[in-house]
Amino acid sequence: MAAEAALFNTAENIMKSLGSLALQEIGLLWGFKDELIKLGNTVSTIQAVLSDAEEQQATNHAVKDWLGKLKDAVLEADDLLDDFSTQLLRRKVMTPVRIFFSKSNQFVYGLQVGHKIKEVRARLDEIAADRKKFGFTEHPIGILFEHGKREDTHSFIPKEEVIGREDDKKAIIEMLLKSDTEVDVSIIPFVGIGGLGKTTLVQYVYNDEVVQKYFDLRLWACVSDPFNVKTIVAKLIESATKKRPESLEMDPLQTKFRETIGGKRYLLVLDDVWNEDSNKWSALKNLLVGGLRGSKVLITTRSKKVALLTGTILPCFLGGLSQIDSWNLFKKIAFKDGKEPNNPELVKIGKEIVQKCAQVPLAIRSIGSFLYFKNSEDWLYFRNNELYNITQNVNDIFPILKLSYDHLPLHLKQCLAFCRLFPKNYEIEVQLLIQLWIAQGFIHSSASSRRLEDVGREYFMDLFWMSFFQQVEGNEYGDIETCKMNDLIHDLTQSIAGNNCTISDPLLRAHEMSMLFPTTASHMPINDTLISSFTCLRALNLSRSDIQEVPNSVGNLKRLRFLDLSWNEDIKILPNSITKLLNLQTLRLDFCSGLKELPRDTRNLISLRHLALYECRSLTHMPHGLGNLTALQTLTLYSLGKKKSFFTKQKGGLGDLDRLDELSGQLHIKGLEHLRCSPVEALAANLKRKQHLRILKLEWDPCIEAGYDCDKAIADDEQLLDNLQPCVNLKQLIIVGYGGTGLSSWVSFSTNLVSIFIYSCARCQYIPPLNQLPHLKNLSLFDLSLLTYISIDDDNHVSSYPLETLKLEKLPMLKGWRMSEDIKLEHGQHSDLPLFPRLSSLHIIDCPMISKLPVQNTRVRPSSETSLSWGYVQEETTILPYVADYQI
């Protein structure tokens, strides 16, 4: 069971903490090393019997009760050691002047901690003694819970593959394109059991090029349960407009929806419908009129009754895959390189297993992924002793999925079970999920040099490759950013998970809000009373909760490791009591656009690993002392305040970044205009040492020029940019408002750059050569009023650039790619124009001087979203004055 997996993992974390050399040395120094040893012996004893306890709890209520008591005691021990480890970390980062424990109180502190450890150990000893009543068998530690291993992990995101559904796709498209003279809107129900791939197939149709061209508008909403008309309409409006409706009241919603579909032939998908209430369906159906004749509504459901209730035509039933397609899918998943092996006995076993999967794609994928890592003896054992022992009918693949889950290692079981907290069809942010896993203590690393986040990413990829996650979306660098769970997998996690934690509001997607509370919690505004009821929380998610003020009592949540306050635009300040949360690992404040400052004692959050401040545009400065947070990996925004006499005391400078060498992902440094008088301070940031940074945004406020000597401002900005040279691992560089005449030469040597964006740099006249950047795919230049040529290199040979997207906008002086072309032409020489063999998108607007931009051996056409009256291509030169948007 997932609960016992979590219990074992917590116990294992305790053993690792107790085994740390620093903890043992401090325990000896302060007089409680013996208590630590005794606690370790007790936890080790408990670990050894958890396997038998897990097996017996299903039929023995006394064992189940024993495990519940044990879990509470183990969590208490884990929290106690976390607190102690946090204090050790604080002691480590304090300066010699501020010794964490003075000699006068070290002895007192040692007595207090020793007493607490003794109390926890006594409680665990009492619970552990009861194990003898149940006759548990003690298993050797380390063999009991062997972690599964993959041969390797990948960042590659495979496209959703649809095998054996081409005929189904053609049939659905024919129905969608068929003219219907009897009704304005045809409603087509699409029925099939869970796991057949209804959603995947409909997505396949929805994104078909012919379908996209035929319909003026496409809308998609996942319905699930409960059936709420307001929620569904809001989702459809967001799907069509890409914006959330401002109001969730029914009257403005229905008005906006009718405006959206009015006069258009639309395709509307209602995915995963369960509602069998005709009144609720009629309320929604009445809103679907108003589009042009030929509009279609496609409904997916597992229920025949729903299909008969909703459809204007007879339901379409999706069957299982054919035997051939089932085998082809299994081969692709279960065998190396997707090829059938030479071993005929293994092929025979595989086909028998496929037969048991009832031609259901999800079951085939799930079992095939599991068997990929097994040898032929394991296949034989699985077929004879597990697969044939399950009872299953043709419309129920749940037992098959349960088998796949049962074979997960315990560390993956608990991570998967945790995902039941998200509502069905919720788009899960992978980074957030990993941070929550860490907050719950699910992730641990055998090597101290390995980041828990990297281990968590491997856990996620393992579950993804075993088909427990689907519908993944990635970024341009190949990393998965979001995913979803299949409904059946979600049902599986609900059935096997314990009841220690659920999300109180099932309409998370509609309200964009969740609170990770015990099941006794009810959905209510955050206040002191509510906070006082849940002091044991490890994670609290108040994203999009429309709160205006965070209560001071939040500082009482001493066990809190994860706090999400994102998308609460009315929050202007945070209570300083938050800085008492010494175990806090993640603080998410993304899109808190009204937030003006962080708590002054933020430096006390010594365990903080992630401080997310994306789009906190009102943040005026950073608090002094963030350099103490040496575990920090995420710091999306660093805002520099105006320098005054108290600058170093109350406001943080770039020197606070010096020790933060674990920073990763994105870093946005804002307010660089305040350093024009002291550009040398930028060296203190030591960005070259930040080996994990991937995106760097450097921003000056171009409107702040008063009081600056122009020549000095240019020189200072150029020195600032020189001193902010990042590590060579950087993938994306964004520069905004820079006041120098040219970019630093280090840009040319950042050989891993994939994207460069330069905006609103009024004095910038040149950009360093870009032909040394072999991975550069995207270049965007906007509002550079003095730029005449993009590149100043004078190479005599033809350069080839790997660019895929080129955007040029508001460049009034731009003449061409590089100056050497014009020089040659003026002297009657042939101009060897650079090549862009991979260019797929070209956007040029408000560039009146441009006369030459090479796109050799390509054909330029207007994009489907832009109406152009002219623009043409010559053999080597494209002349595109005032051209809006072009795609290759």
Descriptive account of the structure:
With 888 residues, this protein is of the alpha/beta class. Among the domains are: 2-134; 166-317, P-loop containing nucleotide triphosphate hydrolases (Rossmann fold), CATH 3.40.50; 323-406, no CATH class; 417-498, Arc Repressor Mutant, subunit A, CATH 1.10.10; 500-662, Alpha-Beta Horseshoe (Leucine-rich repeat, LRR (right-handed beta-alpha superhelix)), CATH 3.80.10. It is 35% helix and 13% strand. The chain has 27 helices and 29 strands. Strands 16-17-18-19-20-21-23-25-29-26 form a ten-stranded mixed beta sheet, with no helix packed on it. The protein has a five-stranded parallel beta sheet with strand order 2-3-4-1-5, sandwiched between helices. It has a five-stranded parallel beta sheet with strand order 11-12-13-14-15, covered by helices on one side. Helix 7 crosses helix 8 and helix 20 packs across helix 21 (452-465). The longest helix is centred in the first third of the chain and has 33 residues, at 61-93. Residues 95-104, 138-160, 499-524 and 855-888 have low confidence and may be disordered.
